[in-house]
């Protein structure tokens, strides 16, 4: 059984689904239960946790309520297990970066974009509702996100040092945590209101600031050459 994203009515859900879970390998592994979870996660991200009902989930995913209740007894169970699917997605994304990109600076640009895209899906309204109504689930996702992103950032730093693209005179653990904190901060409108800052320029400047602080002479030369159009 596959969740039926009908072409017309459910077009937006389908697009958001593959935007939220871009890993083809992960999508192909989804069981019927997980397909429903993935669709529900997307629906929550669009409409909010509190307002979405079991009827909404069944209707928007194009399945019967009987099918939905066959797998899940209530919305709370969907939220809880949906969190596990999101965590699997985080692990899948983080684990897929390092093996396929040789240059650590190129790798860092991919990692940075992935972190920001993931955080975009968790807009502040959703996070507020999740923390208020499902606090254990909220902190479970946050801890998994922090742990996995810092782990892959640490791997990137160690790889860059080993290959000579980064300096070898900084504390990897401190820089990895600072980098992750920076990603969270630029997503926070308290510090960077959307009506005051250009998003593309903000993220570009933050990224270049980070790389220039850790790159060796070799790394800086590569950055200025390959990313010349973004460093000006």
Automatic annotation (TrEMBL):
Domain HTH tetR-type: 30-90
Sample GO molecular function, one term: DNA-binding transcription factor activity
Pfam families referenced in this protein's UniProt entry, alphabetically: TetR_N (PF00440)
Keywords, sorted A to Z: DNA-binding, Transcription, Transcription regulation
DNA-binding residue intervals: 53-72
Protein name (database record): TetR family transcriptional regulator
Species this chain originates from: Thermaurantimonas aggregans
């Amino acid at each position: 059984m596959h969740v039926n994203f009908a072409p017309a009515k459910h077009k937006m859900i389908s697009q958001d689904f593959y935007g939220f879970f871009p890993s083809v390998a992960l999508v192909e592994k989804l069981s019927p239960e997980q397909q429903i979870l993935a669709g529900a996660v997307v629906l929550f991200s669009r409409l909010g946790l509190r307002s979405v009902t079991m009827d909404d989930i069944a209707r928007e995913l194009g399945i019967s309520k009987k099918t939905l209740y066959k797998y899940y007894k209530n919305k709370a169970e969907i939220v809880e297990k949906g969190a596990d699917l999101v965590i699997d997605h985080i692990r899948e994304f983080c684990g897929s970066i390092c093996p396929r990109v040789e240059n650590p600076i190129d790798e860092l640009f991919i990692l940075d974009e992935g972190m920001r895209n993931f955080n975009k899906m968790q807009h502040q309204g959703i996070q507020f509702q999740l923390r208020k109504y499902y606090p254990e689930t909220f902190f479970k996702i946050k801890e998994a996100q922090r742990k996995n992103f810092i782990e892959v950032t640490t791997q990137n730093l160690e790889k860059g040092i080993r290959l000579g693209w980064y300096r070898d005179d900084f504390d990897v653990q401190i820089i990895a945590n600072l980098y992750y904190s920076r990603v969270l901060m630029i997503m926070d409108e308290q510090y960077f209101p959307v009506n005051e800052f250009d998003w593309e320029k903000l993220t570009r400047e933050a990224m270049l600031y980070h790389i220039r602080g850790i790159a060796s002479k070799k790394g800086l030369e590569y950055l200025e050459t390959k990313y010349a159009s973004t460093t000006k």
